[in-house]
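Box 4.2: Ligand-aware structure prediction
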Amino acid sequence: MGLHSHDEVVLLLGAPGAGKGTQARFLAQTFGIPHVASGDLLREHRARGTRLGQAAQTYMDRGDLVPDLLVVDMIVERLSQADAARGALLDGFPRTLTQAQALEDALRKRGGRVRVAIYVQVPTEVLVERLADRWLCKACQASYHARFNPPARPRVCDHCDGELYQRADDKREVVSKRVAVYLKETLPVVERYEALGKLCRIDGDKPIQTVREDLLEALDQTQQAVPA
Ligand code: AP5
């Protein structure tokens, strides 16, 4: 992708469990840009007990979205940090049309833009199965799956030896709520980028390595072809 232009961001859109985090970590490393995940940032705030973290907690536990204003400020602040000056990979943001508009306004003010929105598509029934057996690293947030992507040692992160845990909002009933919220609030965002000619669809219902290769190829192609 070699994000040559200043301040271009790539969006990774998809339902809960679509594999955004799994792929984003790899892509960000490959291209040397920060992986900015709204869910990870919110969980960090919760762990630190900040006011934002406390405000976000009830929404996250229920599977609802955290109010736009809180999330937008958090992301705009993150994108203003030095390491994002040459672009970023956004994972899980924007999730509503309001967030999309706020992001585009903030980028425009500093001469940036959304370069492409990648939509990782996975059938709904697959999502529940993926999330029910997901394990995450407490330290570096790397994502594993008991069957599809197991760590080399049980409950230990391959990357940093951190302890693995299961997210409270991966319980079946909360996942159903998260998927419903996604269909109502986030599909319109997908449609927006489609209408703008910036959407790239990827079939996420394939093995992790295949999805990774498809993403690399798609990003390569969009390098030349995305409208301003
Ligand atoms: P967030 O943390 O963003 O969760 P999410 O979008 O629901 O996404 P996930 O992290 O659950 O899934 P993923 O797509 O990253 O899947 P992963 O790669 O881990 O948000 C959590 C909460 O925070 C929200 O509910 C909301 O309250 C709040 N929030 C966050 N952002 C917000 C925003 N912008 N506005 C308002 N509120 C916000 O993969 C899942 C599993 O599948 C893993 O086990 C993995 O190993 C496995 N897997 C991955 N790919 C494959 C594959 N190809 N084949 C087989 N298994 C695979």
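In the box above, the bound molecule is BIS(adenosine)-5'-pentaphosphate. Residues 14, 16-22, 38-39, 42, 59-60, 63-66, 71, 92-93, 95, 99, 130-131, 134, 143-145, 148-149, 169, 178, 204, 206-208, 211 surround BIS(adenosine)-5'-pentaphosphate (CB under 6 Å).
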